[in-house]
Amino acid sequence: MFPQNKVFRKKIFFPGFRLLRALLVLGILVSSLTPSMAWAQTVTGVEVQGNKGIDSNIILNQIYLGKGKAYTRTAVSQDVKRIYQLGFFDNVQVEKVPSSGGVKLIFTVSEKPPIESIVIEGNKKIKEGKIRGVITVKPNYPPDNNKIAESKRKIQELYQQEGYPDALVETETRKKGNQWQLVFKISEKEGSTVRQVNFEGNTVFSDGSLRRTVRTRKKNILSFLTGAGKFQEEALEQDVALITYKYLDKGYLRVRVGSPKVEYSEKKKGLVLTFYIDEGQQYRIGNITFSGDILTTETQLSKQLDTMKGNIYRHSILEKDLLKLQELYGNLGYAFSNFVPQPNINDSDLTADLVIQIERGQKVFIERINITGNTITRDKVIRRELKVVENSLYNEKLLRISKQKLEQLGYFENVEVSTPRGSSDDQLVLNINVKEKPTGTFSVGAGFSSAESFLFTASVAKNNFFGLGISGSITAEVSGRRQQFSANLTDPYFLDSRFILNANVYRIATDFNDFRRNSFGGGVSLGRRLFDFSSFSVGYQIEDVSLSNFDLIVPEFFRDNADGLSSAVVASFTRDTRNNPLITTKGTFHNVTVEYAGLGGDVDFVRVLANGRYYIPVWGTSTFKVNARLGYIKSTTGEPVPLFERFFTGGINSLRGYELRSVGPTVTIPDSITGDDQLFVYGGNKLLVFNFEYEFPIYDRGGFRGVVFFDMGNTFAEDQALNPLKLRADFGAGIRWNSPFGPLRFEWGFPVKRRPD
């Protein structure tokens, strides 16, 4: 029977089965197409129910199946999913109600209970207010899962920034009474604090030297100011690079610095970092050659280099040399020249032959100059400081000078210069972006000075009137010894020319130890720029001076010459290459002034003053400063120079180890009251002062800097020669603070070889 049945099925039923299968597949396809093709219903309206705290429009914005669209189950499912993603609802149901012309959809939602308060637990290292500042979840709203996740992420980022990358943040909802609380539970890990930084394999540099090199520092008593002790993963790569660079700069070309090992120390209750160093050998410079686009000769190019054969390979010096070569080519118009050093290391004799590959590119012209960021300062004020113009050949040196001149204006916090390529390979665009700082100030202040007792100041100043570069100020200062009122106006480009106009007026009353000096005067000058950073001016100055309240020890001669009107012509030459007039770290300042008083008035003299200041970068932002002043005054009538025009030294601005105006030629005066002789300092007609300072950062971000100093100086009378061997000296130290209220100085000076009295 079985074989017969098999044959029967084969002959009778198999063809019918194939037909049935085909019809079945066709039916499935038709049934799947018909809802959206033939029998699709139209949505006539959408309604939201059940929401109490969440606005209906927020929910409707997530429903794409709107009025007039074809109803499908897939579209409804996607809309429900989007509503859930809002994070406000426990349940969402959809009801389809027949209506005229189609169906109406009713979305019924069930809201999560609203969070009425947010609680933070477990935080000890970071204050609660700082944590709440990054939380995006708001109370009195249902808990939003997206906002909760975002808040957790931001809290963890905050802890990472503060040096706790392993901190954990968890959340839970908690019912307290009738209120629902959202609780952020924070687990702080002490292991995130760096307790020790070690080095292994180092013999060239001490551990202390390397610790001062890396950014990662162990926690100390000043960590609240410096941020030391915070562990930051991204800082480790920078530390490896800094150590590597330190060795490369000493000629260790094959140095290898591995990734630091980070361990938690139970004993130290924190992290211990260990850097492993394979120093290798020190290499010296071998032969230096050039290849590629040599514009002059190799000999002339070598003259630009401080890197020389036989010297230790110094990466920092080589970098500066490449910049000098780039400037050399840039001054010839090759803005995109490229210099690639290729050291060929010879292990046999520990030398490295240096091949500098040069790609000069092509000469480039300045297509246009774009100035941005200046909302107050006018374009012409910026453009007149530029040494380059549109359509001119690119020049690296002139561009650098232009940037320096803009920074010297004092109008901008920052000046950024970029040179992207222009419309063709031989064109570039010069983009100058400035960030303006407030140039107008109104200040009122009070303080105390060891020289002047109490001090009260008030001033109104504007360094950039109407964005035209015109500056002016009105100042009043009142102290226990001095009252000063002054006004000043300067136009650096008078009538849009290269002339400089300056006018000032003042009234000063000062109580010295032996007399009171009152003066009232003013002046006007007209100057002109001669070269970059140099100017010359000629002006007229008039001053009426009177002395009163003399001490008994003041000689009669000086009392007889106590009043006088000086009418003088003043000529001055100035050269200023400082990078910043207020906080200077490099550059020089030179000024020579010649004054002739004799255009009428009561006094006749010639006075010459010369001042030179030198700022030398030492390391980082530390600076060595030298200030030298030389002065000479001579009466043109043969009479001694009046007391109020003579030179005095001593005090905060000359010899800091001595009292104000206490150093100089003296005369012995008998004191009839005490019976003892008194010394009266009457000043000199010659002046020589030197100030040497080393200024270094204490906390740069806060504006705190330290200084150690050494001063030398004296004044000499008409019958004395200007003798450098007879200078008085002092030394000392101090703290300087560039505070929001202005620069403050706290300095203590001590005389060298203090004389009696």
How would you portray this structure in words?
The structure is a single chain. The protein is α+β, with helices and mostly antiparallel strands. The chain is about 20% helix and about 45% strand. The chain is built from 14 helices and 33 strands. The chain has a 15-stranded antiparallel beta sheet, with no helix packed on it. Strands 7, 8, 9 and 10 form a 4-stranded mixed beta sheet that branches. The longest helix has 24 residues, at about 15-35. The radius of gyration is 40 Å and the shape is extended. The chain starts with a helix and ends in a 5-residue tail after the last strand. Mean pLDDT is about 85; it is low at about 1-40.
Keywords:
757 residues, disordered N terminus, alpha+beta, 33 strands
TL;DR?
The protein is an alpha+beta fold and 757 residues long.
> Averaging pLDDT over every residue, what do you get?
83
Q: Order of strands across the biggest sheet?
A: 17-18-19-20-21-22-23-24-25-26-27-30-31-32-33
Number of DSSP helical runs: 14
Assign a percent range to the helix content.
Answer: 10-25%
How many strands, which pairing sense, and closed or not: the largest β-sheet? 15 strands, antiparallel
Going by helix content, strand content and strand pairing, the class is alpha+beta
Strand content: 35-45%
Uncertain regions spanning at least 5 consecutive residues? 1-39
Cα distance spanning the termini: 144 Å
What is the molecular shape?
extended
Query: What integer value in Å does the Rg equal?
Result: 40 Å
The number of strands is 33
